[in-house]
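Board notes (copied after class):
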Amino acid sequence: MALAASNSQASSWVEVARSSARVASTPAEAAKGASVIISMLADDTASREVWLGKDGALNAAQKSATLIESSTVSPSWIAEFAKLAEQHGVNLLDAPVTGSRMQAEAGQLSFLVGGKDAALETATPILKAMSKEIVHLGPVGSGAKMKLINNFLCGVQVASLAEGLVWIERSGLDRERALAVLKTGAPGSPLLGAISARMVSKAYTVNFLLKLMTKDLLYAQNEAAHYDVDLRTAEVARSLFEAAIVQGLGDQDMASVIEPLRNK
């Protein structure tokens, strides 16, 4: 296995390098000779740079290699990338994940996969090592679409939870009792339970970056518009996340979206 890191990140790979991994200085160096190449990055821009930029991985990939794009990116970028991959003679899977830091550390992510059966068969042993499940949703691009739908629903729920919790705090209700009602009632979900705990304790160590949820909501809106679906709730939720970014919370956990509401 090879991993690419910038010079500024190099020290963070020391422990990885002590294992069987090979640390590479560029994506091209990491991709050279690899049968499976995986990226998991922030957005379209980062993904495009790693695959197509100077010293990018695509041109260095050997013929018949399997490429796995596990970033949360736009389906339009995946469609473009798939054409370039086909021209290069390599297979592409789009395989974004659900789960955050804790699931990643435990190898309990879920991969949402789009691509050919044969490519997925090649990649399955590697994906299994990092996941609790692999869901094959259809052709290339299917994973990216499903991930945006997933994160759209998560982002709207986190934003509405922030508003509801501030309402609880100002209303005079006992906060813990009120949250118990919500968590065990119809609105309850694993996300509500985890995020409400972070909001109450103001523990914003990053599980999922606030600025990345903002990006995902924008990508979701743009993608849904292709199908004449207007994600109005995403627009409102995104405005709350953007307000938090303005207040310097973009690099905190997405639960910190509540703070601008508390400070009104």
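Comment from the instructor: Residues 1-13 have pLDDT under 50 and may be disordered. Residues 92 and 196 are 38 Å apart (CA to CA).
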